[in-house]
Amino acid sequence: MNLDIREIPFSRFGSYFCISMERDCKDVYIRDVHGGDEAPSRLFKLEFLQDGQTKDVEVEATETSLTFRIKEDPSSYVEFIIPEEDELHIEVNGIELRLTDKKVKYDSLMEIEDGMYEYHIYPKELKLMIMKLEGEMTVHAPWKIIGNDFIDIRMNNGHFVIESYRTVYQKKDYLPFNEGKQQVERIYHEWFGKFSNGDETYLPSIERASYITWSSVVHPHGILKDYAMYMSKLWMYNIWSWDNCFNALNLGKHYPELAYAQLEAFIDKQDESGAYPDFINDKYISYNCVKPPIFALAYEKLMEINDYFQEQTRLRKVYESTKRVALYFENYRTYPNRLPHYKHGNDSGWDNASLFHVGMPVEAPDLASFLIRTYDILANFAEKLGEVEQANLFKQKADSLYELLMDRLHDENGFFGRVGKNAEKISIRSSLILRLPVIIGYRLDEKVMARLVADLETDFETQFGLATESLTSPYHKENGYWLGPIWAPVTYLFIDSLRKYGYEKIANRVRDKFLELTLVGGMAENFDPLTGKGLVDTSFTWTSSVFLLLHEDKWLEE
Known about the structure:
Layout: E1 17-21, E2 28-32, E3 42-50, E4 53-54, E5 57-61, E6 66-70, E7 73-84, E8 87-101, E9 108-113, E10 116-121, E11 126-140, E12 152-165, H1 177-195, H2 203-215, E13 217-218, E14 228-229, E15 239-240, H3 243-251, H4 256-267, E16 279-280, E17 285-286, H5 295-305, H6 312-332, E18 341-342, H7 345-348, E19 362-363, H8 365-384, H9 388-408, E20 410-411, E21 414-415, E22 418-419, E23 424-425, H10 446-460, E24 461-462, E25 465-466, H11 488-500, H12 504-521, E26 526-527, E27 534-535, H13 541-557
Antiparallel strand pairs: 1-2, 2-3, 3-4, 3-8, 5-6, 6-7, 7-8, 8-12, 9-10, 10-11, 11-12, 13-14, 15-16, 16-17, 18-19, 19-22, 20-21, 22-23, 24-25, 26-27
Helix pairs in contact: 1-2, 2-13, 3-4, 3-5, 3-13, 5-8, 6-8, 8-9, 11-12, 12-13
């Protein structure tokens, strides 16, 4: 694959290193994604010189190597590989590579031995060892009381390594450059082989999705006790709850241990209240928002995909954790005689959807539906675990919540929300989120389900799929995040539910539209519903995971 590093960073499975180009100014940076997307990621700006003059370069990027060649002298190049998770290797030939830092107060670089410099990066609590294995390296980094004034590193004709670590550097032997390149190629091709199936029609999307999911994984570090698939290494480098569930679903068939780890990361950090974190990275945990309960739904599907998830100890852990999640919504998100509520649009995952434009808190039919589905699944889990009384209790809870949903948030015109301490009816009904009760289509009256499907086809379906805000709505906005653009995870939920509950024709049609959409807009965070253009973060894992899931579904069908 020819990788565009303006859209998809160059990285590898397990690594916090990545290299990307700024979209506007075309500056290239070595970056590090420790600390999540609120932490500074730029380590060094790259410049390519000959005879002291900055030269324009051609970028040649594949899944496993990144090369910059002088336009007027293609034999002169700099090549980057990441043969080990914490090692960035650089081969320089006929060019002077210049690295200048983005340092802040207290950041400091010191020479440890000839050709070895240790760089302490304070905001990231990270150290780098920058070393020459062969060739010539010069460093200009004048000291100024508490740190270097600036750092300017030059590398010429040789093999160089930048290694990251937290506390102490351990000396080692490094692979020769070509052997390191062969090693990372073997690792990637094994991964790609699990997700490719010879389909030439969607090969560009298969390549892109496979690479993004592989390269967006980071290794255990700090808070992260296992490998975690970040949403992206471009901008959104955290692991979010409910995003992680779609990535787990894609991993479940071929990499069940890694899939389970994506769920376990949140289960192990569950608050005593029962709430899961909103997001996690190696340094931070945030509970500011609490996503709707979707883990049980995801785990039920994982049990269908791979017997690994049927194992009683794993099922028990998910079951007990999900019970605590349900209690959180009962105890802390539900007023007497009402339905559970959101306190912010971000709670729902639909951050700025029109349903949330009036105020907070909001009783929303999607949240109630997720909880109903969760109780029904918990009843199934309880039966598998031999807890018959608990199964009956969960079934009763689901029944009661369903009756309340239909009483409070449904009328002759469909579903709606309620807002504020007085639970006033929200008149805005133009968001796709109000059609998410399709996930409990097995409970809905046939006429109610038919009305939801008719809404989808009439008000939301476009050439490329399901817009998140009705195309006729005054709230519909170009590049409006959840006010129109198409999103992969909700597309998946609709397709899955429609197929399960008797609407296979529209399910397959929306699936095929989404597959085609990726050939236009790539694996972006979301997409323009009218043009298919990829929007916001253009290197997103849950989009990639949903594509791979839906593509396999179509491939097996044919």
